[in-house]
Task: structure prediction
Amino acid sequence: MSPKIRLSHHILLVTLMLLTAGLACGLPANLAPATVPTNNPTAIPSQAPSATSSPTDTPTATITPTATASATPIPPTPTITPTINLTPMFDSAIHESWRQVVFPGFGNYNNEFSDITQFGDHLYISTLSLSDNFVYSGSHNSGGEIWRSGDGVKWYMVADPGLGNIRNVGMNMAVFKNLLIVGGTNYIDGARLWNTSDGVNYTTLSSDGLGDVQNTHFNFSAYNDKLIISSCNEINGAGLWVSFDGTNIQKAMLGGTLNTRNTCWVTGSQPGVVFNGYLYYGTTNKVQGAEIWRTADGLSWNKVGAGGLGSVGNFALRPELVYNNQLYVLSLNYDGFQLFRTSDGITWEKVVDKGFGAVRFNNITCRLAVFNNQLYLITINQDRRKIARPIKVEQAAAGFQLYSSKDGKNWAKAAPDGFGNINNTTGELKVIGNQMYVETGFNYVDGSEVWRTSDGLSWQMIFKAASLTSYHLNAAVYPFQNRLYAVTNDIKVGVQVWQELIPSITTPTPTAPAG
Result:
């Protein structure tokens, strides 16, 4: 999922999907805050204007913490370059270890990858499909689709595109209390919600953005036996709701006055990070700087950080994980990301500033993972392409950077930039079982890669997807039935999936970060 298309609806859609499911992997430098025309003047606000704190939550909504003055970030120290296996694995080697099980776009080049999850004994993949994308894909088909497989090889579409409405252009999913929850992104009628107990028959929970058609996209977190539903809303401000059963939905309450400049909630990679009994969310706010909110019960929320934690250039904040009893929050900033941590959820310490000193539009954000009792950080550069016909390159190539730290403040380089390939613009970290993976993206020159390590020192490239077109996006791996599945995405030909021929994992789901 990556915001690449220069068409207005596509920019807005994928940007919101990325920021809410996680910060963007390199946003276009000239991407202005998008707005959606108001076509429902009677729509209700997506949040109550004020609320009192719950008894278990200390009121902190008026506190605007910034990084402490004593928290001077320490620059990364030189380190011996780890062992990196740079043996290329192009098509011939891929076919020796992998077999392709989903061909471009499930037969529809307009089907880009949106989401993946396991529900019951099936693996589900949902897509993003807009008719405007025909200028790249040649397909006018629209409406997000949901596909599933019981063996990873045979795939079936479980419902009509858009679940009956092609204006539902993208689908995202969550599993909650033996239900599959589905959110449909819709810019005309408002985001949709469904649930299903069998993955085939879907019940509509909302067809109007939960009362505001400007709620165009929903995301989900499971917390304390509750489903938290968050929205993106460019007009009335992002909203929050709670469900105890996955069917009945009630609005959550924000402590203080609703800030309509908070246009999306950012939930992190889990999604949703729990620290000292609180669930933490960030926001996107391109005017005043992003905010941090938390809740003890899912129903009442209070603000514990504002103004981008001291820099309005931090227009998105993402609570990422807990390491050594501290919560880490990262930002999205075109002048270089900042990384913060807190031991109490209120006072924030800055531990990385300006993306380790990177030039503008490089290291604009990052990802974190805990592996072998160390904290790892991988940086993300802006996509240097301007997606158009033809492709325009607007900045020099620069590979991602990988760092490690034992204390979360002193960082050392853990690998050559881009694993030796400057065209590997972005990287994602994923821990599956007892191994850590790096997934690369935005390499439209020679294709995306997946690397694996068991010790953090010696890496091996296990997958490489040759770039079929100059619109290639990224590659990622997911576990299902003890095998890995590699998923690639391309604006021109859509999603593709490969299955690992020999099972290589013993844990079917990613391990949780150490706390």
Notes: The chain is about 5% helix and 40% strand.
